[in-house]
Design brief:
Layout: H1 16-25, E1 27-30, H2 36-50, E2 61-68, E3 71-80, H3 91-97, H4 100-110, E4 114-124, E5 132-135, H5 137-141, E6 145-146, E7 151-156, E8 167-169, E9 181-183, E10 193-195, E11 204-206, E12 213-217, E13 222-224, E14 233-242, E15 246-247, E16 260-263
Antiparallel strand pairs: 1-12, 2-3, 3-4, 4-14, 4-16, 5-13, 6-15, 7-12, 7-14, 8-11, 8-13, 9-10
The structure holds 2-oxoglutaric acid.
């Protein structure tokens, strides 16, 4: 991928209204980014993983209690993490994380050289799929990377609305500090912590039809609610960082979850810490 493109040369570049929303609110939405047929390819693979019909590393599958009206109904999958990794045998997901429809606008935010952090597929089954409490992804990324901004792209595989547990954001919250995140007492959603001080009354639901993408700043406060509908609510989430980013603890790089090369160059000293499926392009000075 040529890294020396200008914004005008990038077909899917940010438009001025999106830039304003990004800066003011910390997110923007595009509709009709992916077709149903394109998303069906990802959905079918994820279904096969969930039904254990496909070879897929178990440690990338995250399971949890699933609840109905506050009662534990079942235990099951709620997310598949790092599904883009070469070891996960899902090249379609890796291709998606590199799709210029996701990365062109991201280049306008982060610059030409980008790495991919976790690509996670969220699986929220009818009636029992759990929401995620208020959080800032930056709180998690700060443990690994020294970077001002990371960008999340959230692609709706199904229509996402209040009833089936869409994403909520607190517009403008990316301008404030990263809050303390505490374990939620009694929560079924074991993986995630709650940002202290985030208030429901400040949040707005971001209801989107399938095929839409939400780009959000990793510092923006966001959450989602439980799925109370008879429909699935699935989403493909891919995070990006500038390839020049430094690790917070270079002496203890998390070799289990290296970022993935997505686009452009990487930098001296980083090539071993990045996952590659192609010959690396290294900046010489
Ligand atoms: O899709 C959802 O339900 C929540 C996603 C989320 O909070 C995240 O990816 O950080």
């Amino acid at each position: 991928m040529n890294t020396d493109t200008t914004s005008d040369e990038r077909q899917f570049r940010l438009i001025p209204e999106e830039r304003v929303s990004w800066e003011e609110n910390g997110y923007f939405v595009r509709h009709n980014v992916f077709s149903k047929e394109e998303n069906d390819i990802l959905a079918k693979i994820a279904d096969e993983i969930a039904e254990r019909k496909r070879t897929f590393p178990e440690y990338h599958i995250f399971e949890n209690a699933l609840v109905l009206d506050g009662e534990v109904e079942a235990s099951g999958i709620y997310a598949m993490h790092n599904i883009q990794y070469v070891s996960c045998n899902c090249p379609e997901f890796l291709k998606r994380t590199r799709d210029p429809r996701l990365t062109d606008p991201t280049v306008d935010i982060l610059g030409p050289d980008i790495l991919g952090l976790n690509n996670l597929y969220i699986w929220k089954p009818p009636k029992i799929g759990l929401g995620f409490p208020w959080h800032q992804d930056k709180w998690y990324f700060n443990h690994q990377y020294k970077t001002g901004t990371t960008v999340a792209t959230w692609t709706a595989i199904d229509d996402a609305d209040i009833e089936n547990g869409c994403l909520y954001v607190i517009p403008g919250s990316h301008k404030n500090e990263v809050l303390e995140h505490k374990v939620l007492e009694g929560s079924q959603q074991g993986e995630f912590r709650q940002a202290e001080g985030a208030r429901d009354e400040d949040g707005v639901p971001v209801e989107v039809p399938a095929g839409s993408v939400i780009w959000f700043n990793s510092q923006v406060l966001h959450k989602s609610t439980d799925n109370h509908s008879n429909r699935f609510r699935r989403a493909n989430v891919a995070h990006y960082i500038d390839a020049r980013t430094e690790w917070t603890h270079p002496e203890a790089i998390n070799v289990k979850r290296p970022p993935m090369w997505i686009r452009g160059k990487t930098y001296p000293g980083m090539e071993k810490e990045v996952q590659w499926d192609v010959i690396p392009i290294i900046e010489s000075d």
